[in-house]
Amino acid sequence: MGTNRIFVNLRRSAKFAAALWLLLAFLVWNVVFDRIVVLAGRRYAFAAGMAAREGRGYLLINDWMRPAVARGVRVATISALAVAAVGVIAVALATRMDRGRNGGTR
């Protein structure tokens, strides 16, 4: 009975660890996306200010932000997928190693 309880706890802890890795991947996605969009906004504000100062035509924010949002989604998704993949693989390997070390079966 005690051994079964240990394996149930291990399965729960592995699921919890995987959930934490997925949460981290979600946070990474948000941080990367936000950073890319904020930097694009700053670049636009600087370029628009310079254009106004030099008497050039008005710069449309849409021309600057649409590509930034697309790039942000792409880079953030790749980053989050990498974090999630590393985390899930690490949890799977740790679970397998722990089962092998304890001589447990499924």
Describe this structure in words.
The chain has helices spanning 2-53, 61-102. By secondary structure, it is mainly alpha-helical. The protein has one domain (2-101). α1 (2-53) runs antiparallel to α2 (61-102). The chain starts with a helix and ends with a helix. The mean pLDDT is 89.
Describe the sheet with the most strands. none
Q: How far do the termini sit from each other?
A: 15 Å
Shape designation: rod-shaped
Order of helices and strands: HH
Query: How confident overall, as mean pLDDT?
Result: 89
Share of helix, binned: over 70%
Query: What would you report as the Rg, rounded to the nearest angstrom?
Result: 23 Å
**Beta-strand segment tally:** 0
Low-confidence stretches: none
The tally of structural domains comes to 1
| SS element count, helices | 2
Structural class: mainly alpha
Report strand %: under 5%
Summarize it:
89% of the residues lie in helices and 0% in strands.
What attributes does this structure have?
89% helix, mainly alpha, single chain, 0% strand, 106 residues, 2 helices
List the helices and strands and how they pair.
Elements: H1 2-53, H2 61-102
